[in-house]
Amino acid sequence: MNNPYLDLTEELNRGRLRTLLSSGQAVVVHRLAIMSKDGDWILREDAEAAEHVLEVLSEHGARYRFGAPLDLRWLAGGWSSHLELRREVLRIRTDFVTRPPRIAPEQLAQMWEEAQATGDDVVRVEPLAAMKLTNRDKDYAVVGELARLMTDPRSQLRYSRSSRDLIKLAEEHPEALAEATRQRPLLARIGEGREALEEALDRERRALIRANEERLARYMAASEDWAKIWPEVQRQIEGLSLPEAHRLVVSRAEGVLPFEPAQGADS
Amino acid sequence: MTDLRDEFLSEEDLDLRNLSQDELIAYWNLWLEQAQATNDLDEALYSHGVFERDPAVAGKNREPSSAAPARSRSEAPSPGRGVPPPAPPR
Question: Which listed residue, of A38, A227, B12, B76, carries a Cα 20 to 30 Å from A249's Cα?
Answer without folding.
Answer: A38
